[in-house]
Structure formats: C-alpha cells, structure tokens
Q: What sequence folds into this?
C-alpha cells in the first residue's frame, strides 16, 4: 500500500563538475553516501552548482558515474532552463535528450529551474516527453520536477498544480535566491524574508495536485565563534523544522551533514511515533465500544484528528519500505513493530 | 437596513447523537441555550462529531428536536460529504433530502464538509437545490455553507468566492484538523501551524464574494495546572481575537463557554463603541464645517478611515436587531442609544 | 540601460485643495520640494485627501499649478472611482478627461482607487485610453496605477498582473484603510493586521507582470511622550523597512519627513553598496579563474546569488540616472564610481 507514495525528505544537489583534479569528486562522494547521509533524491547539478565553462564536463560526469553506483534513493539531474531565454531552454533540451538517451533507465526524472507561467512548465514537460519518445522509454517513465523561483511560477502555482494532477510533474521545489532577486527582496539586517505565504501555498498546491513540496537551500553552511569555524547545525534545523511543520515533504540539502538532519527531521521522532501509535491503539479500543468523538488524554478525536495520527504511521511505513536501515536505526524494534502492524482505518 | 446582513459570530457544533442514555443530550442542551451561551448559528453535527454507528440516530434526533425549540439563532446541520468519495456524497445527499423534507422550514441551510475544487462545491449546491425542488421550498431558501479543509478547496478559493457572489453559498468555514492532515502539517513542539495565509485569504475571498468567514475549532478545551483541571479560556480567546483582527466574521465553538467568549469578542467592546461613536460624532461636526481630511485626536480621517468607524456601529446595529438581550446587557443604555441614532453617511 | 526602468521609492499624496486661504498650499509645497524631500512620484489627491465640497477646486489647482513647477519626479494625480458606484466612476472619467486635456504632457499617468475585479481595472484603463485619443496623446503615453484596497482586487491580483504585462498599467499600490474596512478587520489593541499575505502577493504579482509595487500609508504621523509631541520616525521606518525587505519598490508618504525616510530606505545603504560592489568585484576575479559556485567570505555564490548583489548596483544606477543629487549626497564618490563602472554580467 505504500508502493505509489513518493518519498523525498531530502533533495541534495551535488555539482556535476568542480574545478579540481577529479572534477566528479562531489558527485561521486554523494553517489557513495550511505545511511542517513544518503538523500532520498540525489540531484547532479548541471545548473547553478556547476561553473558555466564546466557544464559539458558535468554532463559527461553524470552519464558516466550514475550507472556505476547502486544509489539507494532516486536520481534527478537538474538541467539548465529559463522562462525568459530560449538559449537556456535549448541547452536544457539538449541536456535532457542526452540524459534520457544514456541514463534513461537510471534516472527517475529531471529537475527544471527558472520556469515561468504554466505554459513554460508545459514546454518543459514537452521536452521530457520528446526525449522519452525519441529514446524508446515508456510514456511518463521520466518525471519532471520544477524549481519555483520566479514571480510568474508563483503566480500560476494553482494552474501548475492542476496540470500536475494528471501529468509527469512530481515535485515543486522552492528556489529562494532567484526568487528574492526577481522580487527585489532585501536583507536589511534581519536576513531575507522567509516568504511564508509562498511556503504555505507550495504545501497546499502540492497537496491539491498530488505532488511533493520541497523547501529551498540554506547556504550559511558554517558559522564562526571565538576563533572557531563550525557547521551551522542549529539554523539549518530550524529552517527544516519550519518546513516540516507547514507540511512540506522535504528539504533541500547542500551538504552531507544537512542530509543527515533533513532525513531525520522529516521522519517522525520516536516520541511522535510512540504518541501516535498509542493514540491509535486507544482509539481502536474505543472504536470497538462504538463512540464517535472520543476524548483521549483530554483531546477530542474524530476522523480528522485520527488522520493526523495516521499520517505519522504512514510516513514511517513508507520510509521503512525504502530505507529499512534508517527506521531500524531510529526506532526501538518493538515500537516499529507496533507501527507496522497497527490497524489504520477509521471506520 | 440591517435586514439582509448575515450574522454569525459563533458557529457552534453539537453532536447530533452521543452514546448516552439520552442520545440527544448535547443537541437539546444547545437548543435550550440562552443569552450569550446561545450561538448565532447552531450546527447539529452529523459528521465528525457523531460516531459512525450513530449517524442514523443523529438524523432522527435532529428532525425530532429542532422543531420543538424556539432557538434564537440560525440552524445549520452539518452533513457528510467528501470530494474524494462518492459513498460519502451519497450519504450527504440522503441526509440533505431528509432534513429539507422534514425540517426545511426550521433550518437556514446545511453545512457541507470536505469539499474539493469548485466543481465539487457546485455539486453540493446542486444537491441542496434538488432537495429544495423535491420538497417544494422556494429557490434559494435553503443555504449552503462549506468547510474549507482540503488543498483543493483552498486552491480554488477565488473561484468558489466568485460562485458565491450569485448563489446559495453563504459561509466559508475553516477546518484546520482535516486541512493539516491533507497537507501533512506536523506539531514539532510549537503546535500545528496557524495557517495565516489561508486565514487572510478566507477573510478576503469571503469579502469579495459577499460571504461570511468563520475560523476553525479549538479543541484544547481544558488545561491542567498544579493538580487542577480548568477551562482553557485564555488560549481560545487569543485564537478568536486573532480571527476578529483579520476580519473573520465569526469563530467555531465546541462548548457553551467558548460560545460566550466568541459572541463577546466578535462584538465591539464598550470602549471601541464609545471611541467610534465619538469619532463619528466629531466627524459629523467637522463635516458641517466643510473639511475633507480632518484630524481627530491626532489621526487623519478620510472616507476610508470613516468606514472603519462605521463598521463598528453597523455591527452593533445588526447584533441589536437579532439579539437585543445581548446588546442591552453589554452596553450602557445611553451609549447604545447614541450608536443607534448616529448619522452614518460620509458625504 | 536604466532608461526603461521605472523608479518609485516614494508615492507622496498631497491634498489638491485644503480649506485654507491658499487652497493649493500643500500641493504647491510638494511641487517645490527638493533633495530627499522630493518624492519620486507626487500624487495630487482629488480623492480621499480632498474634502467632498472642494473636489472642483482641487482639480483647478492641479491643472493650474502642475505646469508651473519643474518637479524632479513624476506626477500622478489620484482621481475618484469605485467598483461599486457608477456615480464615482463618472466623476473619475471627467477628472481624467480634464487632466489629460489640460496637463496631459505634464503628468505621467493617473492613479485610480477602489478598483474591483479585473473587469473594473480594464474599465479604468479604457477611460484613460479614451481621454488619450480624445486629446491627441500617443497611445499608452498616459499611465494607469491602481490602489489595491478591495477584496475583489486582491482576489483578482493574478489576473490584473497578467493584464499589466501588456498594458498601460504601471503600479499596484496597497490601500490598507479601505481594505480593512471591506474585510472588517479590527484593532483589538495591537493595531490593525499588517496583511502579510497581501504584501507578499503584491510584491510577487508586480514582479510577474513587470509592475511596481508600493506599500500603504502610515497615518500615525506624530506621537506624544512626557508632554512632547514629536514626529513618529521609528514606526514609519519600521513599516518601510518591512516593505523593502519583501521587495516592494516603494512606500506611500503623507508628509515630507516620511518622504525623506522612504527615499532613503528604498536606496541601498552605503554598507550594502560597499558589500555588494565588493562581492561582485571578487566574483569577477574568481570568474576569470573559471569557478562556478565560488565561496566568498563563507557564502556560496552562484548565478542566483549574484543576481541579488546585482540588484543593489542596478538600483543605485537607476537612482543616479534620475536623482544624481541624492546618490552624490548619500555615497562616497569613490564607492559610487566603482558601482557605476562595475561589470555586471554573470557569464
């Protein structure tokens, strides 16, 4: 029952080529990641993460390295694109064509940035469909995810979501840096805006269209205090927790430590799991006694409340289906067993 | 002039049947409420407030009890429905048909939960229209209000509001628990999100479509401190005040004490009324002297500012029209008299 | 390259007629403003700022005074209008006709308040087009800006933005006082809502449609403490900074001191300019070395990050183009010179 549920707690971009002796160093390192350091989605980045003069080499690295590793999650290369520049779209089409041709069986889809209004998203979908046909892959087998980072894409989010109900569109990912640049947002000492309205809309429209919603990157990777530079774990965790609270399905990671954190936060805590397993167990008992709105520990539980508890259990089941190493590491065996066996129907 | 203005400061749901010796206990208790404990809208709840195996009895209780009481507000039963399940919609249609048939003269409309996109709202409206025709009630005499609690309904809120401009649609009510479950929102220690974007949109679209907007239920009815369990008056009041600030017309109540609080908060305070009566009295004086943007107590007053003062007076007049017991209890007789006699035209 | 970029850091309304011996006193005083006291847009106000019985005199003042001054910014009279009242629209059409006839070469456009849904905005645009044709001005030479202050306009903001992509529509200005009155917002002690969702949408839709976005007026001009009444500089600055952070292009001013503040805040600080000039200078160096995502001072810089730095420089260039007195007063000559000469292309 969890087979058709998409999982993307972590959307980790890795530059497809870097100016080092081994230009595929970061890509390979991400492909080799294990346990909580392995993201649900690995995104070989041919766009902003790779320098303009290394794009070609990034594409070679991607088609060469991806097939060599048995990566535990999904693979979604990010190509170039721009709603306002046909030259970028043409590059994007060539990159999509090459990827589908050479690693069409290994990738789950492509990520297209800087899309504009609905018509531009449809144009990106058509580019994927064309490559699919050209290289003999089944219709719909190569997914499309988009970065929402322009005023036009935000403006058309409802229409894009409706398009997503019945198309290859899979995930809506927020791109705050391009977005702030488009709108002219400014950091006047308290940082850039968090764009709460957009995040809430992203979560809603993804839900309405049956899509995944993913937050934007956090690039203050390190902070310095008293002479020491250290990984900025607190601020990243706060961003990811805010996204999880709003119902975003996952967060963007730029770095293995961020992946550990986002994988962890977008997974119920042992306390949450214990609490909601307990609630449903007590609910199931009360149900046998025929009560509708029952009070458990002072809180009224009706079908709607019940669904929130059930979400917790279902998320654990989906993660267990894909990454049993993570659920077995995180939860007590007895608790996990109860979560896997629980009866989840309200009626 | 206040005749056609709808009033719903309080939307109180009462389970239509509960597993007690007297299954109509809570429904009857709500129908008997007086003074500030009587909600503007009483909602006999056939949906989540009544257990699955007591729905039939809930419907019997509703058609039997409602006609027996001279309830001072409006009666809006909540039926079953779901945008994603025809079985629930069929139950909803049967419940609507039975209600309109037996108590069509006593109820003001029906509340339909879990609606999806515009098309589903139109489907619900058609079900009401059909029952109306079938049982010989005038076209449009039975209203429709909907619970906004799915990603799809939130996504289509503008289109639903436009439909509401010229249809039986009367109120948009927020359903946060189902909504959080749909979006996958999580409580990570600070509670569920308040969904500020949705609340603001609800207030706006209700205003644009000439509809009422109502906040969601607050179910932490009691809290415990130092061994004592007591009614959680502070937190509920804070939620209702937040809703009132944003221009929502009313709040959801689950309990008579909540009804007292929401009736009170969605009514101008004596200080607000004194302040705005005073401002308009001084404005009317200044108007006789021919000044446009006048300064009263350091604040510039133009037509727009004036409208805000007038809102206060008009709200009091509408409440006085429906529930004079409440206005007479709340305001000094002299102040109320000034409010009822004040000239309210800007020009 | 800055010629076609619109600049409106400050939208200052001035009553077109006041009940004083010299009824044009405030209008003339605004037309004579210099330096940071001169707004980018001066708005002779025939609507809420001028008393009902002085509208005719306000129109005379406007057509008489505007041509006499060489005002350094743009001139945008605000006329009367209402989506719900044909009488106001007819007055608005007459005012537009008279303004275009007599001062069509001196004004940049007209500001139309209280617009409703898209159809009403199109109706306002048609009124301007008609006056343009009637009096022989080139098509599109007289702009249209609208006050967003009704539930309907907020509801249709996406559609209005799309209309703005290819029409005379120039700016979206927020009108919070009428807006709060429409929605029934209330001040329960913490002031009126800030309408964060609307402000974020205004910034987004303006960006999507190539329009300017402007915040609403702040009318608590003065505060009193310990017997002294003084200009409320802090609270106005906080509102303007919030608007600037969200990417609004400008703020509404009611008073010369507010104009100084808004002109200043919607202009990069010397520190911001120094920082972003420095970042781009270092980026340009790194680019010569062929690196894509480079780290400068611990922050990763890709094309998107780069665009945010570039915004700062471009804003300074546009202001320098229109108001060199202000840039020369604000910035060190050496820093300004570096900003004007910097290479701004990412590739």
A:
């Amino acid at each position: 029952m969890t087979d058709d549920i998409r999982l993307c707690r972590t959307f980790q971009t890795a530059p497809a080529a870097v100016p080092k002796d081994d230009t595929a160093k970061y890509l390979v390192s991400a492909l080799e990641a294990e346990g909580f350091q392995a993201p649900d989605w690995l995104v070989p980045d041919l766009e902003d993460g790779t320098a303009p003069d290394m794009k070609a080499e990034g594409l070679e690295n991607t088609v060469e390295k991806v097939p060599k590793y048995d990566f535990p999650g999904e693979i979604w290369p990010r190509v170039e694109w721009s709603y306002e520049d046909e030259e970028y779209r043409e590059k994007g089409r060539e990159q999509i064509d090459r990827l589908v041709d050479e690693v069409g069986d290994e990738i789950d889809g492509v990520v297209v940035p800087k899309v504009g209004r609905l018509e531009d998203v449809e144009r990106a979908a058509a580019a994927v469909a064309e490559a699919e046909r050209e290289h003999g892959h089944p219709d719909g087998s190569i997914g499309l995810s988009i970065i929402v980072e322009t005023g036009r894409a935000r403006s058309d989010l409802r229409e894009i979501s409706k398009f997503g109900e019945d198309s290859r569109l899979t995930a809506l990912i927020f791109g705050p840096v391009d977005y702030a640049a488009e709108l002219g947002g400014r950091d006047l000492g308290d940082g850039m805006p968090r764009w709460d309205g957009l995040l809430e809309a992203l979560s809603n429209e993804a839900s309405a269209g049956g899509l995944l919603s993913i937050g934007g990157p956090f690039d203050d990777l390190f902070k310095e205090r008293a002479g020491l530079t250290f990984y900025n774990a607190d601020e990243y965790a706060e961003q990811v927790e805010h996204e999880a609270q709003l119902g975003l399905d996952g967060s963007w990671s730029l770095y293995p430590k961020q992946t550990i954190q986002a994988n962890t936060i977008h997974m119920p805590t042992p306390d949450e799991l214990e609490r909601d397993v307990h609630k449903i167990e007590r609910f199931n008992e009360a149900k046998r006694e025929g009560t509708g709105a029952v009070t458990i520990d002072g809180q009224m539980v009706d079908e709607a409340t019940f669904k929130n508890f059930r979400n917790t259990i279902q998320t654990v089941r989906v993660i267990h289906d894909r990454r049993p190493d993570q659920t077995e590491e995180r939860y007590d065996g007895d608790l996990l067993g109860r979560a896997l066996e629980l009866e989840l129907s309200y009626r």
Observations:
- DSSP finds 14 helices and twelve strands in chain A.
- Chain A has a mean pLDDT of 94.
- Residues 10-265 of chain A form a domain with the TIM Barrel fold (CATH 3.20.20.60).
- Residues 41 and 74 of chain A are 5 Å apart (CA to CA).
